[in-house]
Design goal:
Length: 171
């Protein structure tokens, strides 16, 4: 899920629509748009500072290897294929959830057939999350899928894509 205020999924709570689970916590955080400061600190954020475009945040997430799972990529991957296991974004010790058996099996076998990688693409058409990727090795069969993408200043695209590991092992 994106962390910028302008990118909340349809139906998600906003600062003006708290849910019962956010009502208590909302009193602890200032509403979006107000200057923030730390308790007992003289430092604060400058409200007059220029706002970075959402593509800047996307580029930083892609550089850090943090995927944005959107409706086009939802339910397409197990956590290990988008490297959630490598960035400690999934717990293997807690609770029950749909797909837990597949996630556990993949973890204990130690192999995934696909892994997420960062790439730079020059294309005439802008790629989008969920687009399938093809290569000569696999012919007409898709060899991967775009997970996250953002344009660059030079007309290219930075993206995270899940692709075959090649040897069937851990990439």
């Amino acid at each position: 899920m994106r962390r910028t205020p302008g990118h909340l999924p349809h139906g998600s709570p906003t600062a003006t629509q708290p849910t019962s689970s956010t009502r208590q916590a909302s009193s602890l955080a200032p509403p979006i748009g107000l200057p923030l400061c730390c308790k007992n600190s003289t430092h604060s954020f400058n409200a007059a500072a220029p706002q970075a475009p959402p593509t800047h945040w996307d580029a930083l997430d892609i550089e850090a290897g943090i995927p944005a799972i959107v409706s086009a990529t939802q339910e397409q991957f197990v956590p290990q294929t988008v490297n959630f296991d490598l960035i400690d974004a999934v717990s293997f010790n807690k609770g029950c959830y749909p797909g837990q058996e597949i996630v556990a099996r993949t973890r204990y076998l130690g192999k995934v057939k696909q892994r997420m990688r960062r790439a730079r693409l020059h294309a005439s058409e802008p790629p989008a999350a969920g687009d399938k990727l093809y290569c000569a090795t696999y012919g007409d069969q898709a060899s991967g899928m775009v997970v996250s993408v953002t344009p660059t200043n030079d007309g290219a695209y930075e993206l995270l894509a899940v692709a075959h590991a090649g040897d069937g092992g851990d990439a």
